[in-house]
């Protein structure tokens, strides 16, 4: 969601800005722009549409200059258009701003600035920031930004430049991610690491309410009171290739192929030679684990679906009550937080606005927060009491795949560790679970072989023109059905819903008619017979049933019109495997329909606004 890049140095800044913005395309956007200090002029170029439109324009009419800011905008206030695209500048063109986030009091500020003679040319909330900084400008851009911040309410990451301060870029972070890349004789600002990784691995991760003065030869960071803040340099330990397609047609398919490795990377360092789980890095005491009265899981989208798997698994194996809530709902109810409740907050990005708000709310009420996130240094990782990383590597495609399966793995590790410490899982079972978990990466790889993929491609080719699809499942299979359905709708635009199979007769069955595609997830042995009844019910109404199931499910295999088999594992771990065919099915449906898989319409990778 929106991307910021800033550069100050000897290079042609538009090259760096465009290159950086192209690495942030995955975040989702609908227009792009740059502002560059060129001699004593501020040049602004911005275009609705893909980055290429802006790039082509800059080829036709290049802008010279070694200091600039760039932006990809995902529209919130005002439709996608050239005028609403960032950067926004003052009428004099002295000051230019790019912004991620939302200014909640922008109408009030707009009225105020109107009384001071400012006029507005866009419908955005961002334009008020440029005018507000101008309003407070008395010779120092840095000081004017600090003053303006006192009036701004909401979430924002900003990059600001001024003609009158040609030697520094100002960067601000409040509830929206921003990093500083440290080079030699040049420095960078960006919303995310991939934007600057081609130039440097040394990064400052700004904290909320910090302001950075970024010059060619150095960076100074201050808190909102103007007091200098020291930052440790964060060294990025992954390569540019990890954030590139590496020969695959899309990031999504590359990331599905990376699942076996991501699972291994997440698991192996946490299993000792003796076959024990080692969560030392988590640093949660046995006393704390024993005292847990209730677990509350809060997340959005795919991460929420991972949480739902955990609810079924934890309640079954640990006998601890587990509540689960969607973050945007949690934050507006009046939750009761007990002193011994453990909150598990799951977020690939660690920056999702609703998830962060829910986490802070729970924390304020005294909850202990355990974060599961993929992004080292993310807001979630910094504010939680305990952090467990999914070591999945950067996930670029909007549709989450390897982050989901590694989130599940982390949740299973927690289940086993908690079960052992609390005496809910005995030693023999514990050892058997670990042996089986160690086999999971190889089993995941079996689903991504050429033959399996060919079968799923054929199936996608056959079904990609349907208008509606319904996913069915019970218990853990229902959690996977929800995730499979989300994946399909977000990247193929096929209308899709998931139902608990037992709920069919209470309404959804009215939707089934001749040739309706019903995708049934059936991996839970004790529920096979129940699922068989549901398959019979929908087939009796004309449905075409595609079952994702295992060798053991003979009856289901006989009944379904089409089956995709997944390798056997313990029932409790099946979601890690059964979800992969749903990811592949969604991917190939999207490709068949000619959709931009990695950047589906209206969606953003990291949803940093409410
Ligand atoms: C779906 C998807 C989204 C995210 C959701 C939460 O494929 O990616 O549903 O899961 O926006 O994002 P994070 O996990 O970054 O908090």
Q: Strands of the biggest beta sheet: in what spatial order? A: 3-2-4-1-10-9-11-15
- The coarse silhouette is globular
> What's the count of strands?
25
Major sheet, described briefly?
A: 8 strands, antiparallel
Give me the number of helical elements: 19
Q: What oligomeric state do these chains adopt?
A: single chain
The chain-level structural class is: alpha/beta
What Rg do the Cα atoms give? Answer: 25 Å
Number of domains: 3
Do you know the CATH topology of the largest domain?
Glutamine Phosphoribosylpyrophosphate, subunit 1, domain 1
CATH evolutionary superfamily of the largest domain: Aminohydrolase, N-terminal nucleophile (Ntn) domain
Q: How far is the N terminus from the C terminus?
A: 11 Å
Helix content: 25-40%
**For the record, what CATH class of the largest domain applies?**
Alpha Beta
Mean pLDDT: 94
What structural keywords apply?
single chain; alpha/beta; Glutamine Phosphoribosylpyrophosphate, subunit 1, domain 1; Rossmann fold; 3 domains; 8-stranded antiparallel beta sheet; binds fructose -6-phosphate
Description of the structure:
- The chain has 3 domains: 3-242, Glutamine Phosphoribosylpyrophosphate, subunit 1, domain 1 (4-Layer Sandwich), CATH 3.60.20; 245-445, Rossmann fold (3-Layer(aba) Sandwich), CATH 3.40.50.10490; 449-597, Rossmann fold.
- A hairpin with a 5-residue loop joins strand 13 and strand 14.
- An 8-stranded antiparallel β-sheet has the order 3-2-4-1-10-9-11-15, with helices on one face.
- The protein is globular.
- The mean pLDDT is 94.
- It contains 19 helices and 25 strands.
- The chain is of the alpha/beta class and 610 residues long.
- The N and C termini lie close together (11 Å).
- The longest helix is centred in the C-terminal third of the chain and has 21 residues, at 427-447.
- Bound molecules: fructose -6-phosphate (F6R).
- Residues 300-303, 347-349, 352, 355, 399-400, 486, 490, 606-607 line the site of fructose -6-phosphate (F6R).
């Amino acid at each position: 969601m929106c991307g910021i890049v800033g550069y100050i140095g000897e290079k042609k800044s538009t090259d760096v800005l465009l290159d950086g913005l192209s690495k942030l395309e995955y975040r989702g956007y609908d227009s792009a722009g740059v502002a560059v200090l060129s001699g004593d002029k501020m040049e602004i170029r911005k275009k609705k549409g893909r980055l290429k439109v802006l790039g082509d324009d800059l080829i036709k009419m290049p802008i010279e200059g070694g200091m600039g800011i760039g932006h990809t905008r995902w529209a919130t206030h005002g439709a996608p258009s050239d005028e609403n695209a960032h950067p926004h500048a003052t009428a004099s063109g002295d000051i230019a701003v790019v912004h991620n986030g939302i200014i909640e009091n922008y109408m009030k500020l707009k009225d105020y600035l109107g009384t001071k003679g400012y006029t507005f040319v866009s419908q955005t909330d961002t334009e008020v920031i440029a005018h507000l900084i101008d309003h407070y400008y008395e010779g120092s851009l840095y000081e004017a930004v600090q003053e303006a911040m006192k009036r701004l309410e909401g979430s924002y990451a900003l990059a600001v430049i001024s003609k009158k301060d040609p030697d520094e870029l100002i960067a601000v972070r409040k509830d929206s991610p921003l990093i500083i890349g440290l080079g030699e004789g040049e420095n960078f600002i960006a919303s995310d690491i991939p934007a600057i990784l081609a130039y440097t691995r040394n990064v400052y991760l700004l904290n909320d309410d910090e302001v950075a003065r970024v010059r060619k030869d150095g960076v100074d960071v201050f808190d909102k009171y103007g007091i200098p803040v020291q930052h440790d340099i964060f060294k990025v330990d992954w390569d540019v290739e990890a954030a590139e397609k590496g020969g695959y047609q899309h990031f999504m398919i590359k990331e599905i192929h990376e699942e076996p490795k991501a699972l291994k990377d997440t698991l192996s360092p946490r299993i000792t030679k003796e076959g024990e789980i080692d969560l030392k890095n988590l640093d949660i005491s046995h006393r704390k684990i024993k005292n847990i009265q209730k677990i509350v899981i809060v997340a959005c989208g795919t991460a929420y679906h991972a949480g739902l798997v955990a609810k079924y698994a934890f309640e079954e194996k640990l006998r601890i009550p587990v509540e689960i809530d969607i973050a945007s709902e949690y934050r507006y109810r009046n939750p009761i937080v007990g002193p011994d409740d453990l909150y598990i907050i799951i977020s690939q990005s660690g920056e999702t606005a609703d998830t962060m708000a829910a986490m802070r709310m729970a924390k304020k009420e005294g909850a202990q927060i355990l974060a599961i996130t993929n992004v080292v240094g993310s807001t979630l990782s910094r504010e939680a009491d305990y952090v467990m990383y999914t070591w999945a590597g950067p996930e670029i495609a909007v549709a989450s795949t390897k982050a989901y399966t590694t989130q599940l793995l982390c949740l299973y590790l927690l289940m086993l560790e908690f079960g052992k410490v609390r005496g809910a899982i005995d030693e023999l079972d514990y050892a058997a679970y670990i042996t089986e978990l160690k086999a999971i990466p190889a089993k995941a790889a079996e689903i991504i072989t050429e033959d399996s993929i060919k079968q799923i491609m054929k199936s996608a080719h056959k079904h990609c023109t349907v208008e509606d699809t319904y996913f069915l499942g019970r218990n853990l299979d229902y959690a996977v059905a929800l995730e499979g359905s989300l994946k399909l709708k977000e990247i193929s635009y096929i209308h899709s819903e998931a139902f608990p199979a037992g709920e069919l007769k209470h309404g959804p069955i009215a939707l089934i008619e001749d040739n309706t595609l019903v995708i049934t997830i059936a991996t839970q042995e004790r529920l096979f017979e129940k699922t068989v009844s549901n398959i019979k019910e929908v087939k009796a109404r004309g449905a075409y049933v595609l079952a994702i199931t295992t060798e053991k499910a003979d009856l289901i295999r006989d009944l379904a019109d089409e089956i995709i088999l997944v390798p056997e594992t313990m029932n409790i771990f099946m979601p890690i495997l059964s979800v992969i065919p749903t990811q592949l099915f969604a991917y190939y449906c999207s490709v068949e329909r000619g959709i931009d898989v990695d950047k589906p319409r209206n969606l953003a990778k990291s949803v940093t606004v409410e």
